[in-house]
Amino acid sequence: MENHAHTHLSKEALKYRRKKHAEDMKRQVITFILMIFLTVIAFFAVGYDGYSKWFVKPFILLLAIIQVVFQLYYFMHMSQKGHGTIATFLYTGLLIGLSAVVAFVLIVWI
């Protein structure tokens, strides 16, 4: 009798997992399409002669930052629970890297 109840719970758990995986896959496909769209916008911004380089360069960097966030949170599963330590190391490395870039820029330009 207990074995039958355990099997029923496993079927419910399997059903929940399938639904969860389907939702995750849907989010990843939508994010992938958005990233392709952002890439097309970036190519258009570079190829269009009407935009100045003072607009295009920061715009491309903004699109790149958005794509990095999409990569981290959807494709690297950083939005899920249990990735706190990894996120801490990642953000610490990002802070150190950005600090180094700012320091080098200040040294070279000032």
Automatic annotation (TrEMBL):
Q: Name one Pfam family in it.
A: COX4_pro
Which Gene Ontology cellular component terms are annotated? cytochrome o ubiquinol oxidase complex; plasma membrane
- Segments spanning the bilayer are 29-48, 54-76, 88-109
What is a biological process (GO) this protein takes part in?
Answer: aerobic electron transport chain
Q: Where in the cell is it found?
A: Cell membrane
Q: How does it sit in the membrane?
A: Multi-pass membrane protein
Q: Any idea which UniProt keywords this protein has?
A: Cell membrane, Membrane, Transmembrane, Transmembrane helix
Example GO molecular function: proton transmembrane transporter activity
Spell out the family assignment given in the record's similarity comment: Belongs to the cytochrome c oxidase bacterial subunit 4 family.
Q: What is this protein called?
A: Cytochrome c oxidase subunit IVB
